[in-house]
TrEMBL record:
It is found in: Cytoplasm. Transmembrane segments: none annotated. Interacts with UvrB in an incision complex. This is UvrABC system protein C. Gene3D superfamilies: 5' to 3' exonuclease, C-terminal subdomain (1.10.150.20), GIY-YIG endonuclease (3.40.1440.10), UvrC, RNAse H endonuclease domain (3.30.420.340). The gene is uvrC. SUPFAM superfamilies: C-terminal UvrC-binding domain of UvrB, GIY-YIG endonuclease, RuvA domain 2-like. Pfam families: GIY-YIG, HHH_5, UvrC_RNaseH, UvrC_RNaseH_dom. Belongs to the UvrC family. Residues 289-477 form the UvrC family homology region profile domain. Its main location: cytoplasm.
Length: 602
C-alpha cells in the first residue's frame, strides 16, 4: 500500500483506483475516513455536488484542508482498512458504533495438560482464544458443557513432566468426585488428555458434529468390548451434546456457516442485529446502535456494522445474509438477500431482534427523559404539593456574631441547579445577629423584585431553618400579598425535619428517599453559596479596615479602591498610574508609600 497527500483543489489528480481517503482539518485533526472503488470519482463527488447534499456534509467539506489517500488491491481491502482507521481514530464525521464493552473469551492455554478458562484480556503467546462471546451466560453454558463431557483440569499447577515424576503433587477433591483423572500424579497420559481437548476445541468452534461422532464411536467400541458401564456414560454424554444442540438450533442443520446482519433505522440512529449460525445452531447474537453523522444510507450503515462485528467476533462465514439487495456489491464479501426458505426465516428472526432492540432503546430513552421528573414527582407526593415542584428556590443566612451579614438564594429547575439564577444578598435593614429578621428581609426583597419584573414565582420555597426562620419568611410573603400562592417549607438540619407554616408538628420523609436527598442537596447548596459569599465579604471588609488605617485614606477612598480593583492582590499588582486614576495623585502616593513600607508584613 502507498499513501499520498493532496489539497482540496487537487481532487482531480486522485487516481482512479480502489482505496481509502482521509480528510484533515486546519489543525491536522482527522475528521473523516471513507473507502472507494474509485478514489477520484468518490472524492470529487464531495466537491462537485451543489444539490442533494445535506448541511452536515457541506460543513465537513468546508473544514477539509488536506486529503490523504491509501491505495489498496480491492474494494474489500478498502472496507477493512476503513474499519480499522475508524476504530482507531474515531473521526467526528464518521458513523459512530456505540459499543465500548469488552467481551469474554475462552482461553485454551499453551502448556502441558492445557487448561480452559474465561478471560477478557488477550495476551499473545498465552494460548488460543475462542470468542468473543456476546454474553457471559452463553460462554458459561459452553464451558459447563465441556466440563460435563470431558475431564479438563481446573487447577493452576505446573504439570511439566519432570515435576510429575518428582511426585510433588497430590490428587485433590476434583479427582475424587470424577471431574479430573489425576494427570498431576501421572494417572492420565497427556496423549489421552489431548484427545479430549481436541474434541472440546471443536465445540468451542461451534462444530458439534465431530464430538457427536466421537462419542458414538466410543459408545460402540465399549459395547463391543462388553464394557457396558463405559458405553452408558458415552451415551449420556452424546445425549447431553444433542440436547445442547437442540436448544441452540434455530435453522436447518444444512445451513453450515453463515452470518446474518439486519438493521432498522430512524432519522438519527440505526439499530443492527448480527447473528452467526453454524450447522443450524445460533452461536452469536449481538445488537448494536449506530449514530448517523452525514445522513448515511442504510447500505453504508449495514456494511459499517457488519465489518466491525465480523472483525470483533472473528467470523469465517462463507456467506452473509442481508435484508435488502446491495446496490454496490463488494468483491470479496459474499452478501445474499434470500427471498424464500430457511435463510429468509433467519433474516426475519434477525429483523425481529433488531426491532425489539429499537423498542428497548426508545423505552430507555423515554425513561431517561422522565428520570429528571421522577424525583420531583416523588417530592410532590411526599409533600402533598398541588403542582410538580419543577422550580424550587432555597434561602440561607450567614454571619459571625452579627458581622458581615449576608444571605443566599439558590434555584433548582427540574431538580437540577440553575446557577445563573443564584442570588447573593447583603443584609441592609438588620443590625446584629438576627437570623429571623434577616430571613424576612431577603425573602421580601426577592419576591418584591420578581413581582415588579413580572417574572414567574417558584413552585416551592425552601427555608434553611426551623419554625422561626419559616415564620419570618411567611411574614414577608404576607406583606407582599402572595402568601398561599406557592408552597413554603422549612428544613431543620439536625433531624431533617420538614416544617409547614402553622403546623405544630414536623413531618419526616424516609431517610432513603430520593426526594429528601434532593431537599438536602438544595439546602446544602444554599449553605455553601452563602458561606462562600460571607468569606469574600469578610475578606473585603478586613482589607477595607486595613486601608482606612493608612494616613490620608478614608472610608470613601477605600471603597473606591475595592470597587475598582476587587481584591488586595490586584491593588498590589496595579501600576502607580492606574491607582492615580482611581483616587488621585496625592492619595495614590500615600498608599504606595505605605505598601512599600509594609511589603514584608503581608
Amino acid at each position: 500500500m502507498e499513501s499520498s497527500s493532496y489539497s482540496p483543489n487537487e481532487y482531480n489528480l486522485l487516481p482512479d483506483h480502489p482505496g481509502v481517503y482521509k480528510y484533515f482539518n486546519a489543525t491536522g485533526e482527522l475528521i473523516y475516513v471513507g473507502k472507494a472503488k474509485s478514489l477520484k470519482k468518490r472524492v470529487s463527488s464531495y466537491f462537485n455536488k451543489n444539490t442533494g447534499v445535506n448541511l452536515k456534509t457541506r460543513r465537513m467539506v468546508r473544514e477539509i484542508e488536506r486529503i490523504e489517500i491509501t491505495l489498496v488491491n480491492s474494494e474489500f481491502d478498502a472496507l477493512l482498512l476503513e474499519n480499522n482507521l475508524i476504530k482507531k481514530s474515531q473521526p467526528k464525521y464518521n458513523i459512530l458504533l456505540r459499543d465500548d464493552k469488552t467481551y469474554p473469551y475462552l482461553l485454551v492455554t499453551q502448556e502441558p495438560f492445557p487448561r480452559i478458562f474465561q478471560t477478557r484480556k488477550m495476551i499473545p503467546g498465552r494460548g488460543t482464544y475462542y470468542g468473543p462471546f456476546a454474553s457471559v451466560k452463553a460462554m458459561n453454558n459452553v464451558l459447563d458443557l465441556i466440563r460435563s463431557l470431558f475431564t479438563i483440569r481446573t487447577c493452576k499447577l505446573d504439570l511439566s513432566p519432570y515435576k510429575i515424576q518428582e511426585g510433588k503433587y497430590k490428587v485433590c477433591l476434583e479427582y475424587h468426585i470424577g471431574n479430573c483423572q489425576g494427570p498431576c500424579v501421572g494417572l492420565q497420559k497427556e496423549s489421552d488428555y489431548l484427545k479430549d481437548l481436541d474434541q472440546a476445541k471443536h465445540i468451542l468452534k461451534g462444530n458439534l458434529g465431530l464430538p457427536k461422532s466421537y462419542f458414538k464411536q466410543e459408545m460402540q467400541k465399549f459395547a463391543e468390548n462388553l464394557e457396558f458401564e463405559k458405553a452408558q456414560r458415552a451415551k449420556e454424554k452424546l445425549d447431553l451434546l444433542e440436547k445442547y444442540q437442540a436448544k441452540s438450533l434455530v435453522a436447518n442443520p444444512t445451513i453450515h456457516n453463515h452470518d446474518i446482519c439486519t438493521l432498522v433505522a430512524d432519522e438519527k440512529y440505526a439499530y443492527v442485529n448480527y447473528m452467526r449460525v453454524k450447522n443450524g445452531a445460533l452461536i452469536v447474537s449481538k445488537n448494536v446502535e449506530l449514530k448517523k453523522k452525514l445522513d448515511e444510507t442504510d447500505e453504508e450503515l449495514l456494511l459499517t456494522a457488519l465489518i466491525r462485528l465480523q472483525d470483533q467476533f472473528q467470523s469465517d462465514a462463507e456467506e452473509v445474509l442481508v435484508p435488502f439487495e446491495i446496490e454496490n456489491p463488494i468483491e470479496g464479501l459474499n452478501l445474499v438477500n434470500p427471498k424464500i426458505g430457511d435463510k429468509k426465516k433467519l433474516i426475519e428472526l434477525s429483523l425481529k431482534n433488531a426491532r425489539f432492540y429499537k423498542q428497548e432503546k426508545a423505552l430507555l430513552q423515554g425513561l431517561n427523559k422522565d428520570k429528571k421528573d421522577r424525583v420531583i414527582r416523588q417530592l410532590q407526593e411526599d409533600l402533598s404539593l398541588p403542582e410538580i415542584p419543577d422550580h424550587i428556590e432555597c434561602f440561607d443566612n450567614s454571619n459571625i456574631q452579627g458581622t458581615s451579614p449576608v444571605a443566599s438564594m439558590v434555584c433548582f429547575l427540574n431538580g437540577k441547579p440553575a446557577v445563573k439564577e443564584y442570588r447573593h444578598f447583603h443584609i441592609k435593614t438588620v443590625k446584629g445577629a438576627n437570623d429571623f429578621a434577616s430571613m424576612k428581609e431577603i425573602v421580601g426583597r426577592r419576591y418584591k423584585r420578581l413581582l415588579e419584573e413580572g417574572k414567574s414565582l417558584p413552585k416551592l420555597i425552601v427555608i434553611d431553618g426551623g419554625k422561626g426562620q419559616l415564620s419570618a419568611a411567611v411574614e414577608a410573603l404576607q406583606e407582599l400579598g402572595i402568601y398561599g400562592k406557592m408552597p413554603i417549607i422549612g428544613i431543620a438540619k439536625r433531624l431533617e425535619e420538614i416544617y409547614f407554616p402553622g403546623d405544630m408538628y414536623p413531618i419526616h420523609i424516609d431517610k432513603k428517599s430520593e426526594s429528601l436527598r434532593l431537599l438536602q442537596r438544595i439546602r446544602d447548596e444554599a449553605h455553601r453559596f452563602a458561606i462562600t459569599f460571607h468569606r469574600k465579604v469578610r475578606s473585603k471588609n478586613a482589607f477595607g479596615t486595613q486601608l482606612t488605617a493608612i494616613p490620608g485614606i478614608g472610608e470613601s477612598t477605600a471603597n473606591k479602591l475595592l470597587k475598582h480593583f476587587k481584591s488586595v492582590k490586584k491593588i498590589k499588582e496595579a501600576s502607580e498610574q492606574e491607582i492615580e486614576e482611581v483616587i488621585g495623585k496625592s492619595r495614590a502616593k500615600d498608599l504606595l508609600e505605605w505598601m512599600e513600607k509594609n511589603k514584608g508584613s503581608n
